[in-house]
Amino acid sequence: MNADKEKWVLLIVLSIIWGSSFILIKKSLEHFSPYQVGALRVLIAGIILMPIAISKYKLFPKKHLKWLILAAFTGNFIPMFLFPIAETEVSSSIAGIINSMMPIFVIIVGALVWKFETTKQQIIGTLISFTGVCLLAFGGGDGEDGKFKLIPILLLLLATLCYAMSTTTVKSKLMEVSSTVLSAFVFSFVLFFPSVIALTFTGFFSTFSFTEDNMLGLMFVSLLSVFGTGLAMMMNYRLLKVSTPLFASTVTLLMPIVAIAWGFLDGDRLSLMQFIGAGIIIAGLIFLRAKPKK
Questions:
Q1: Cβ distance 233 to 52 under 8 Å?
Q2: Burial of 172 (0-12, 13-18, 19+ CB in 10 A)
Q3: Whole-angstrom distance, CA of residue 20 vs CA of residue 93
Q4: pTM for this prediction
Q5: Would you give the DSSP letter of residue 266?
Q6: I need a labelling partner for 195 at 20 to 30 A (CA). Which of 3, 62, 188, 292 fits?
């Protein structure tokens, strides 16, 4: 498969996997705390990828260690906690829509940190999408009381900013490491012990028992970890190799559709204002990707 076809296949599959992650987070939160969901998600991925990390340890990019640590924590640790914390207050649909802002942050981080070229069209698209976020946040209709909740929205935006920092770091500094090996190093070497420490502080190891409720929760977290974290990150790193950071972040255009569909089936409902806000976000993202007219 040539690179052009491969990037589109990866884009579609990633959209489905990551778009389904938000409902899996919601289901996991019915059994564990937000901090336990985040730590378990990282830990399970680390355990699964450990054989690859050990077998390929000679390929560990020591000279790029600081960039590996930065990419790991911003892309695969901090957001794993921020999303569950936010989803205790807002719906999985809202989380999926806010996450679509990632291309905006890719442009901002790329321009400020990595000196990527920024066009006037991208700036206008960013402003359009930001307007949509404001409507989405103030649109109400989310949660049982329908009140505007600023903190969860800010946490989701921070998580999305972290994803953008990781994406641009990988593209700029870690392209020489294969996607599978990079994922294995991130989860098994860099983030394994931090996730164990986080679980210890939540009291998970001292309180967990093999009840039906806990096992059901582990099933949801395991699905989230295996597909939404381990497999998806390998595919994402591969997508970054065969495309650009901005194209790779296009996955967030399709993710809200999957997230809203799952949320609707699970009983989530968006207000008219929030639907309009979501539409404006997508419109802004489409605009900043459109080829300028000659």
A1: no
A2: middle
A3: 10
A4: 0.86
A5: T
A6: 62
Write the CA distances from 230 to 48, 93, 116, 185, 264, integer angstroms: 8, 22, 28, 11, 26
Give tens-digit pLDDT for 231-284. Answer: 888 888 888 888 877 777 778 778 888 888 898 899 887 788 888 888 898 888
Q: Give the number of other CB atoms < 10 A from CB of residue 264.
A: 12
Distance (Å, rounded) from C-alpha 145 to C-alpha 142? 8
Residue with tokens 């639907």: 275
Contact between 283 and 128 under an 8 Å Cβ cutoff? The reply is: yes
**Token reading at 133:** 């976020």
* 129: helix, strand or coil: helix
Condensed to tens digits (0 to 9), the pLDDT of residues 209-218 reads 999 999 999 9
Residue 204 in 3-state DSSP? helix
The gap from C-alpha 143 to its chain's centroid, in whole angstroms, comes to 22
Listing DSSP states for 236-284 in one string gives HHHHHHHS-HHHHTTHHHHHHHHHHHHHHHTT----HHHHHHHHHHHHH
Quick one: tokens of 172?
């700029």
Tokens of 118: 């920024």
* Cα 247–chain centre separation: 15
